[in-house]
């Protein structure tokens, strides 16, 4: 069964997104966004070919938008690796 695993840098990204969400929009909306993000991870596991190829940034890397963020991930035979979750306006090349 394929599942997803959040790598350390992506986990830090998610923590920052959640903290910023609480400070900006409140706890309820931050929780909703975080829940939606994890639902998106599961969607990526179930739909492995839906991501946009991002080999120019790193071999095997794909990306998929969620809200104002971009989820960068790699599909392997038995899991989806969540590599980073970056703001849509960030310099992706610099952070990957």
TrEMBL record:
InterPro entries linked: ParE1/4, RelE/ParE_toxin, RelE/ParE_toxin_dom_sf
Keyword presence, Glycosyltransferase? no
Keywords linked to the UniProt accession: Toxin-antitoxin system
Q: 4Fe-4S: is it a keyword of this entry?
A: no
- Family per record: Belongs to the RelE toxin family.
Protein name as it appears in the record: Toxin
Q: Which organism is it from?
A: Nitrosomonas aestuarii
